[in-house]
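Table S7 (text form). Paired inputs.
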Amino acid sequence: MALPRLESLRLPRSRALTPQRRPWRWLLLALLAVLVTLVAALPAAWVARTVAARTEGRVVLADAAGTLWLGSATLALSAGAGSQTATVLPGRLQWSVSFWPLLAGTLRMTVSHDEAMPAPVAIAITPAGWQAQAGAMRLPAALLEGVGAPFNTLRPDGAMRLDWTALQGAFRDAPGRPAGLYGHLTVRLDQVSSAVSRLRPLGSYRAEIDWNGRAGALRLSTVAGPLFLEGRGQLGARGRFEGTARAAPEAETQLAALLSLLGRREDNVTRLRF
């Protein structure tokens, strides 16, 4: 009696490879999960170090708490790296980062401050540039010392408010649009005083700035005296300012020393050139 012939059983090719592929799939998923966990757990202190490095020490996030995605810190502003002092704003700066826009290559975040900012501001950053919503911020006028002359001599004190339209920043040049900042800012200085003058306050002032790439056009006017300042200039790598300063008749004697520090007297006014 002949034995039945045994035939080998062959699995389809796709099924035969499946057991070999599964370990690699699980390994990739595990690595991806670890990477997402590490990024999600990045502490706010890492954000603080990054901001300080990118701003050359001008913006300091002290006492940072939370993570990259949701955190807060005390905001301090200084004249830059090497500065021995910094102005600390009362209250806390908060930020939150949306995860899903990152998959499309956009970092979308919302920034607010419980003391200095009346409303949150949304910021979007892409490889080509960034955009920020219109907003406002209240700051001490003492921060102007970091700008340089003449503020580092005057050492101003008072209230400063910044209002800006929607701002755009380009990281690289494009046809007809060089890299830089685009938008309009208004700076209001109220009840300003100076460490080199006993007369307080010196006045209130308004500056309009139009940024168009690497340079910004500046217009300065006086809201109230007794020290009247007017002028125009340009901000940027080749910044310059030309204007005039004069004192109200009843304050000429008290402001004589201050005016001599600001510039040369010509035609009954002090010429300002910086």
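Next pair, protein 2 of 2.
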Amino acid sequence: MDVIKYKFVFIGLSTVLTVAAVASMIGFGYKQGIDFAGGTLWQVQFTQPVDMNSLQSFLASQGAQDVTVRTGATANEVSIRAKEMTEDLHTSIATQMNQQFGSFQEMSFASIGPAIGSELRNNALIAFVLVLLGISLYVAFAFRKVSYPVSSWKYGVATLITLFHDALIPAGAFAFWGWKFGVEIDTNFIVALLVVMGFSVHDTIVVFDRIRENLLLSKNKENLGPIINASVRQTFARSVNTSLTLFLVLIAMYLFGATSLSWFTLMILVGTIVGTYSSIFVASPMLTFFHRSKSK
């Protein structure tokens, strides 16, 4: 396996995917869930079929504002979206709805004000940026003993670029799913991004650590390419096997888990594939761009 020989092919593919992801985010945007935009999300399952138009008219007549009603994932399941509801209004509507449309089971009910939603969104963005910076600084510190032929802080830069790559592609896919399937982003979206970044950086550090060990043992540090290739070969099986284990678990969760977490699981699944690829074929070859010889 000669990763360095074909590094422009690997990095070129990642660049194309990253550009496509950014274009998806700009072109499609995101449908914000109640966690960020505020409002009420009420999921119920009736014991008998219900006409969606009649239900929407009924909810509006009971005082619910900006109501939208959609069918759920299972039979007779209904998802109700509206402006923020008080608990009194929620109880009143539930009582009247039971009389009008028959008995039902309340699957979930969440109501968040717009101020809280805005605060959650801002805090999520801050957490995302702090995680990126924190991981990059840690990597730069951890590799301080191998400042040649690549400066230790440049390991942190390579990690930062890789993390952006691993976060942008699943985020771009989520924007496409929102446009195509109406999927909304919520706090699970941020959690999925952080999970992807955590898994990716763990894999990247394993490869970088083997490069560090081989550099310390090498008598010819100038010849960085073969050292990186050897390090990738030595860690390749471990990276693929670890990712495959997680991949199988995520497939099982997606197929048999709760429907409310299906998009969350799918996003982590995409991120796992992208993160494994970037750790081997993007982060490691990127170090050659930072290579500095003694003559320089």
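The chain has two domains: 7-34+116-290, 39-112.
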